[in-house]
Design a protein that fits this description.
The chain is mainly alpha-helical. The chain is 44% helix and 6% strand. It has a two-stranded antiparallel sheet with strand order 1-2.
């Protein structure tokens, strides 16, 4: 796995965006998210989280 896809944000554990995780499994992001939603009981509670608007803006500015 490419270490540059692991993100660190204040007050959050290290994370990987769903699009990068989907790429690792050779599936579309939409399908990965659908599978997780259908099988929530198989994943730890902290497996997935939504970024706040502020966190999203920080990531966008870092990749620009």
């Amino acid at each position: 796995m490419n270490p540059s896809i692991i993100l660190t944000l204040d007050d959050r554990p290290p994370a990987i965006l769903d699009r990068h995780l989907a790429e690792q499994f050779c599936v579309k992001t939409k399908r990965l998210n659908e599978a997780r939603a259908r099988n929530q009981q198989r994943f730890p509670e902290d497996f997935a989280f939504r970024l706040s608007d502020e966190e999203r803006d920080i990531l966008r500015s870092q990749s620009a």
